[in-house]
Design brief:
Ubiquitin-like (UB roll), globular, alpha+beta, five-stranded mixed beta sheet, about 10% strand
Length: about 150
């Protein structure tokens, strides 16, 4: 099977047609920025973009994504140059990460939000960022998203 990951064709061989994209990314392609968290699509640590929309890769069969454009955290800067760099800078300025485990998924969700909403409100951020952070850095995440929105305009 061939997948388009970070704008590169990748030939992969899932052992099972229901194998989640997450395991293809991590185990076959070595793209370990996408994290395993809950395995149920709830926490968001595994968030990637498929055709620009956020998707939980731990519950999505890779076979369902043939012909679609998949972007991981490793490809975010190239796929979203306007928002990717601004988000990274804002994440640092606001010292968002503590343990950092959820951050790649948070950044992917935030980039998708900014791609569709240039100046998100608190309510829009709350609705879009459904990722879980055990460290509780949600106020910093919100501040960083607003800062990135300001930098990208």
């Amino acid at each position: 099977m061939q997948l388009n990951i970070n704008d590169r064709p990748q030939k992969v061989a899932p052992a099972d047609p229901e194998m989640p994209l997450l395991w293809i990314l991590r185990e076959q392609l070595g793209l370990t920025g996408t994290k395993y968290g809950c395995g149920a699509g709830i926490c968001g640590a595994c968030t990637v973009h498929v055709d620009g929309a956020p998707l939980r890769s731990c519950v999505t069969p890779a076979a369902a994504l043939a012909g679609r454009r998949i972007t991981t955290i490793e490809g975010l800067a190239a796929a979203a140059p306007k928002h990717g760099a601004a988000l990274q800078q804002a994440w640092i300025e606001h010292q968002v990460p503590q343990c950092g485990y959820c951050q790649s998924g948070m950044l992917m969700a935030a980039a998708a939000l900014l791609a569709s909403t240039s100046r998100p409100t608190d309510e829009q951020i709350d609705a879009a960022i459904t990722n879980l952070c055990r460290c509780g850095t949600y106020p910093r995440v919100k501040a960083a998203i607003k800062r990135a929105a300001g930098m990208a305009t």
